[in-house]
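Before surveying the methods themselves, it helps to consider a single example record, giving the amino acid sequence and backbone structure tokens:
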Amino acid sequence: MPLWLAIILIAAGILGGAAAGIFMLRRTYTQQTLDNPPISEDFIRNVFAQAGRKASEVQIQQTLRQYKAQYKAAYQNRKKK
């Protein structure tokens, strides 16, 4: 096998592996973010407290569900484009 062919094959393998890795990383990150949003119940409690309100558990869960639904809808709209 000529040396130039070996160099080209190695470079193509590295580039292909990097492209596949980036694609898999992006897909995994998006799926993890959809399942476990970066916002938590404690964060919502703090936001309500900073606004001067004492939030009930129902309000916290409702806010968390709304955030998840909004994030999923935004992901679906981005995916359609």
